[in-house]
Amino acid sequence: MRLNAYLARAGVASRRKSDELIKAGRVTVNGEPGQLNTFVGADDRVEVDGKPVAKQRLAYLLLHKPAGVVTTARDPQGRPTVVDLVAHESPVVPVGRLDADTTGALLLTNDGELAHRLAHPRYGVEKVYEADVEGRPTEEALQLLCEGVDLDDGRTAPAEAGLLGPSRVELMLHEGRKHQVKRMLEAVGHPVTRLHRSRYAGLALEGLRNLPRGRGPGRSGPGPGRSSPSPAAP
Ligand code: URA
């Protein structure tokens, strides 16, 4: 990995600040001055100001995010953050975002490469949401969600949608625009009253402590499992 990423992962400084340390000649790799384009492997010896940089272990945390917690490292309004909540020894950051009032699966890691890959639209990582909505979505509304909805930042990509109850929609997306689920459901006439992410990148919440989110028993199982709408559950 690049030297700045290595330093950031080791908790020395952010990538940008690490670049400054490198440019200032304060970083050596195997005794030689590091450069901005230096790549570092597991066996390399990295020092800053002559002091060895301890390797940081990679950490991956799956959080069942409760409502009322923001998905940032710091909140100007002083609300609790997901980073406060996990209070991990490594500087883990959330991969992507959930709105403050959204509950569910959120991955936090200090593995910058994985985080970048998971968040990159090119990889179309799967996200499954359960949304309580106003009204009772019809087959037509579900079909629209599947085929693509015109939003102010463009048409949404094909998705999978089904009903978990008369006013509960399960939606599987492969993109992650801001407030996307709420905007899609609003666009088809069913504003979201409560939103939960049950799965992210194949990671489900089973086995994690179920922080209260005030909803009835959810369905277990592999997700929508269909690409076309289905009738309401009995
Ligand atoms: N879509 C939303 O509208 N909100 C979220 O928190 C996640 C996806």
Protein architecture, described:
The protein folds into three domains: 3-52, RNA-binding S4 domain (Structural Genomics Hypothetical 15.5 Kd Protein In mrcA-pckA Intergenic Region, Chain A), CATH 3.10.290.10; 60-119, Alpha-Beta Plaits (2-Layer Sandwich); 121-204, Alpha-Beta Plaits. The chain is 20% helix and 25% strand. It has six helices and 14 strands. It has helices at residues 3-9, 15-23, 82-86, 112-119, 139-147, 180-187; strands spanning 27-29, 32-33, 46-48, 51-52, 60-65, 93-94, 103-109, 127-133, 150-151, 154-155, 160-165, 168-173, 192-200, 203-204. β6 (93-94) and β7 (103-109) form a beta hairpin. It is elongated. It starts with a helix and ends in a 30-residue tail after the last strand. The model is unreliable at 213-234 (pLDDT under 50). Uracil (URA) binds next to α6.
Name of the level-1 CATH class of the largest domain: Alpha Beta
Element-level helix/strand string? HHEEEEEHEEHEHEEEEHEE
Classification by helices and strands:
alpha+beta
What's the main sheet like?
8 strands, mixed
What's the average pLDDT?
86
Q: What small molecules are bound in this structure?
A: uracil
Radius of gyration: 21 Å
CA(first)-CA(last) distance: 52 Å
